[in-house]
Design a protein that fits this description.
The protein has 341 residues and is α/β, with parallel strands linked by helices. It contains 12 helices and 15 strands. The protein has 2 domains: 5-126, NAD(P)-binding Rossmann-like Domain (Rossmann fold, 3-Layer(aba) Sandwich), CATH 3.40.50; 128-290 and 320-338, Dihydrodipicolinate Reductase, domain 2 (2-Layer Sandwich), CATH 3.30.360. The strands form 2 sheets. A 9-stranded mixed β-sheet has the order 14-13-12-11-7-10-9-8-15. The protein is globular and about 60 Å long.
Length: 341
């Protein structure tokens, strides 16, 4: 019988780590060996909750522990460099979205995965919603004709207001470590959806709103518009919205129909067409085991030597990173950005 995969965690400052660790700990083919982070309260928490060894340095963990793979939940900038370091040591990597702070880092990450023959899986929290998986499959199969637009809006009242930890906020509000502000944190979702169904746009226009909140060093509202040879798409991000109306809803527009995907696992998928203009609910089956959560998918890809699924594919996420970088440049320069950059 094959021994469970030995997995370490590099970085605990991204709060999403605590949502993903239970799936890893419960997986029969994985062993959480050790975790590293410079913040003592975070390493104390993971040691208490999961009983693993801890380090203050990711490099020390990588030097001292015999591993098969790593989870990375650090800042976007630091996480990308840790991923490259780990892959150069022949370790498989699961990293939290959007994979990097800069396109140059994303390019090096894809090259490191290919050059070292390891898996690089990008964890997008909404990738495990069964209704979104169904919608993407239907769109790819032509259920709404030719797709001409993807629209996604992610919004809440702000990281601090949402209850994000100090460690998370410290780098979310740092343009070097995050890559931007709300544009990087939240427009990334719409960017990866557009990249998944439509590929790279021919041009991108990014805009940041006037600061709603005082004291932030990054933008708190942003929008990225993508122009395609056949159609358009948009990705919106807000850290100032009160209430959840319009938040996290995905819409796919095609020449023969429209699909609306409500947020969170178990929510509705609605399909409208010429014969059913108000739309009807589409039955959605439970996701297959390998698409239920991040741990299942990561371990499945490693064990079966399979390419990560659509949203988790590093090349798709790399294209999303290019859309994001074009949006940031556009907002800074006040001009459209032609792709490829």
């Amino acid at each position: 019988m094959t021994s469970p995969l030995r997995i370490g965690v590099l970085g605990l400052s991204h709060d999403h780590v605590w949502d993903n660790l239970p799936f890893l700990a419960a997986h029969e083919d994985a062993e959480l060996v050790a975790a590293a982070d410079p913040n003592d309260p975070l390493t104390t928490r993971i040691a208490t909750e999961y009983g693993c060894k801890t380090y203050t340095s990711s490099s020390e963990l990588l030097d001292k522990e015999l591993l098969d793979a790593v989870y990375i939940f650090s800042s976007n900038a630091e996480g990308a460099e840790l991923a490259i370091e780990a892959m150069c040591k022949k370790l498989h990597v699961l990293i939290e979205k959007p994979m990097a702070a800069r396109l140059e880092q994303a390019n090096r990450m894809v090259a490191a995965a290919e050059g070292n023959g390891v898996k690089l899986v990008i964890n997008w929290p909404f990738a495990w919603w069964s209704q979104l998986q169904k919608a993407l499959t239907m769109a790819q199969e032509g259920a709404i004709g030719k797709v001409w637009a993807v629209k996604y809006r992610a919004a809440h009242a702000g990281p601090a207001e949402l209850g994000c930890s100090k460690y998370f906020c410290d780098w979310l509000f740092n343009p070097e470590l995050n890559g931007a502000g709300a544009m990087m944190d939240y427009c990334c979702y719409g960017s990866v959806l557009a990249a998944s169904l439509l590929g790279l746009p021919e041009s991108v226009t990014g805009m940041t709103g006037g600061q709603v909140k005082d004291g932030l060093t990054v933008e708190d509202n942003a929008i990225i518009a993508m122009k395609y040879p056949f159609g358009m798409s948009s990705a919106e991000g807000s850290w100032t919205q009160i209430g959840q109306l319009t938040s996290y809803t995905t819409t796919f527009y095609g020449t023969e129909g429209t699909m609306l995907v409500e947020p969170r696992e178990g929510a509705l998928l609605i399909l409208a067409s010429e014969s059913d203009p108000m739309g009807s609910e589409v039955p959605v089956l439970e996701s297959e085991h390998s698409l239920k959560n991040s741990a299942n998918h990561f371990i499945h890809c490693i064990r079966n030597d399979e390419q990560p699924w659509l949203l988790c594919d590093p090349k798709i996420s790399r294209n999303a990173q290019e859309i994001l970088e074009a949006g940031i440049r556009s907002a800074e320069q006040g001009s459209h950005q032609t792709l490829p950059l």
